Amino acid sequence: MISRRAWAALLVLTAGIALMVVSYLVLAAPWGFPPESEKFSNPRLAFAPLLFIIGVMIAFLAAVVYELWPQRGGKE
Amino acid sequence: MSGRAVALPYGVGRISLGWLALVAIAAALVGVGAFAYAIQELEGPIATGLRDWGTMGGATWGLYVSFIVYFVGVSFAGITVAALIRILGLTYLRPISRVAELLTIVSLILGALSVLADLGQPLRGIANLFRYARPQSPFFGTFTMVIAGYLFASLVYFYLAGRRDAYLMAQYPSPLRWLYRAWAAGYQDTPEEKARHERISFWLALGILPLLVIAHSTLGLVFGLMGGRPGWFSALQAPGFVVLAGVSGIGHIIVLAALLRWSLGLRDQPEMAAFRWLGQALLVLGIIYIYFTIVEMVTAGYAGREHEQRLAKLVLVGYYAPFFWTGMGALGLAIGLLASQALSGRWSIPLLVASGILANVTAVAKRLIIVVPSLTHGSLLPYGIGMYIPTWVEGAIIAGLMGLGALTILLFMKAFPIMEVPAPVEEVRP
Amino acid sequence: MPRYAMTIDLSRCMGCRACMVACKVENNTPEAHFWMYVFRFEEEEYPKTRVWFLPRPCQHCDNAPCVKVCPVGARYKRDDGLVLTDFQRCIGCRYCEVACPYGVNYFHWKHPDKAQYLDYTDDPEVKSRTNNTMPPYRNPDADLRYGPEERLTAGAHHYRGVIGKCTFCVHRVEKGLEPACVANCPVRVFEFGDLDDPNSIVSQKLRTNPHFRLLEEEGTKPRVYYLMGNPPSPEVRQVMPVKGGKRG
Ligand code: SF4
Ligand code: SF4
């Protein structure tokens, strides 16, 4: 039985990794044909690299979520 | 808040004369660095000894890039040691895990600042890297993985690992209580919470280790992928960076741990076992690095292309030989010191500190040897040879950065216990 | 879309460096920056000494290491083959300069206005000879933005702390003119044209002359072809290098 705390952390982790993958493969990396075309010197979406970094950060924030998730029926 | 003065652990909040003197020195260094940076900003990068390679006969990258690599390298060992403590359960190392994590964070920030010192357009650099950074450039990995991802991961780790001590510190009346309360964020050190923290930091450590290897490899690839630069293009560049990063970082941890043990007047903490472990790690990594260097030099000097051979000769017996042999000699000496201690089984802290310092001499010398000779003497076209002599501005900025690092650690020491508080203190709730 | 290329006939070059001067005037490059550079080489020993010359513009490589490494896409390759620098995007990391095996990049180490050959303060003496204008002259074409993305790429735009290099005179090519070095060579060493057009002068020259490209073994696929000659061997000595020195 996975606790609600673990679910939340997993959700955050997945969201972070998904953002990383999407921003790296789809938004930032200019792939296409011909590969040296000048359109590919730009990210598909401006600030995609920022999204990637935010993705990395969200993924690691999962740990904080896991620890700080309020305790059900706890003392506080 | 009660007025009772309670001695906080590890000298937190107690300001001594020695500490003040150190802070003054560090702050003075920061001031000199800031002044030098102001000059560089006013005059432009002309204030440095860097110039274009080719017809201008200079080196394009120099001290700044060497120290980016060096600072990021130092950061490597800190978080690795902290992660290994969790994964392998090395309890006797636990007291130094906080200083190791702090070292990681501080030196990563210093690395990022030296990038800014190197860029011709620093402000544009910050904006455009977020906006346009391209995964095809090895800088993308360096920038996202090292400076953002790895720094953030270390901060998370540092924060979570510090909650227990923050909770304990919040028990004492002190002017920084609000900080400890905020940091602890409801942590009560119940067995349940402890178990949870152990679990999560294990996973976090497991996540950080691959990130580390990727980050340091991309930094190596910044050089290793450059086919047109003799002396750089090598598959050994990435693993070499990881290993040398470990050497310099562990050297730093040894020095810091010894300084703490001495300055806080602790006679048995960190334990000798911790120093022994660090010494052994440094020994092994140092030997691996020597092996890498020999393989690299043999490949370049024996089978390498004409230009590789010329460069290898230059480094081994030519113009750059003094730097190279200083670096390798320092490493050899460090290994000798460590090996003799390992063989006799008697470890001494002063000798360990000496080898830690020597390892860092090697790291700095080797970084310079990697960056500069290929630019001044590595041209594939028959341009003349170049020359690079750093100016005082570059030196002062680097010194200022080091001062900044020292200052941060010194200030932190007085605000938070620099080592894990050993046992729960008795309740002194007001 | 044309595929621009340049040919350089080594049998004709006499090392006068007029192309270097033309480039300086056209692109207003500061002191010690040589977007076009002519090597003067010496080979063998007396009495068999041979002196020869090799002009070196940017090679506008098809597989350009400088483009690959640029972290922000400031150095990019246009569809017509020109490798250009977006002077407003470059962050001054100098990675392109380090990655390029040809040494054609020049960084603005100080404010370009302070790096011109003469100190052009309002000098009546100068003004009396220049029809009341003060050099350095700003070519209005250099202010135009070219290509579908309208990037600021033409030479003569110099900012402190960014990189610069040969643009194949994009502002002239866009108007249908030849690059300045091509137009100014007294013995017509250079030709510039479209590789896709079999009747263009570069295509014809390449069909009829033996040619090589510089450092082809690096896999950079340069767009500059040298006719009639051999690549410099590691034994050649450079004579009379420019006095770039430490000026920046
Ligand atoms: S010659 Fe150098 S600067 Fe020019 S395209 Fe090739 S790699 Fe880039
Ligand atoms: S100096 Fe400018 S053009 Fe060159 S790699 Fe860096 S950002 Fe790109």
Number of domains of chain A: 1
Ligands, deduplicated: iron/sulfur cluster
- Biggest interface found: B-C, 49 and 58 residues
Average pLDDT number of chain B = 86
* Number of strand segments of chain A: 0
- Structural shape of chain A: elongated
Q: Pairing-aware structural class of the strands and helices of chain B?
A: mainly alpha
What attributes does this structure have?
heterotrimer; A: 76 residues; mainly alpha; 2 helices; 0% strand; B: 430 residues; Formate dehydrogenase/DMSO reductase fold; 2 domains; disordered N terminus; binds iron/sulfur cluster
Note the topology.
The complex is a heterotrimer of chains A (76), B (430) and C (248).
Chain A: H1 4-28, H2 48-68
Helix pairs in contact in A: 1-2
Chain B: H1 17-43, H2 63-88, H3 94-118, H4 122-132, H5 138-169, H6 177-184, H7 191-224, H8 237-263, H9 272-303, H10 306-316, H11 321-344, H12 349-377, H13 392-415
Chain C: E1 4-9, H1 18-27, E2 37-43, E3 50-56, H2 65-69, E4 75-77, E5 83-85, H3 95-99, E6 106-107, H4 124-129, E7 163-164, H5 170-173, H6 180-184, E8 190-194, H7 201-208, E9 211-212, E10 224-227, E11 237-238
Parallel strand pairs in C: 1-10
Antiparallel strand pairs in C: 1-8, 2-3, 2-11, 4-5, 6-7, 9-10
Walk me through the structure:
The complex is a heterotrimer of chains A (76), B (430) and C (248). With 76 residues, chain A is mainly alpha-helical. Chain A has one domain (4-68). Chain A has helices at residues 4-28, 48-68. Chain B folds into two domains: 14-48 and 392-416; 49-390, Formate dehydrogenase/DMSO reductase fold (Up-down Bundle), CATH 1.20.1630. In chain B, 72% of the residues lie in helices and 0% in strands. Chain B starts with 16 loop residues before the first helix and ends in a 15-residue tail after the last helix. The model of chain B is unreliable at 1-5 (pLDDT under 50). By secondary structure, chain C is of the alpha+beta class. Chain C contains seven helices and eleven strands. In chain C, strand 4 (75-77) and strand 5 form a beta hairpin. Chains in contact: A-B, A-C, B-C. Chains B and C meet through helix 4 and helix 5 of B and strand 2, helix 2, helix 3, strand 6 and strand 11 of C. The complex binds iron/sulfur cluster (2 copies). One iron/sulfur cluster (SF4) is lined by residues 69-72, 74-75, 85, 90-96, 163 of chain C.
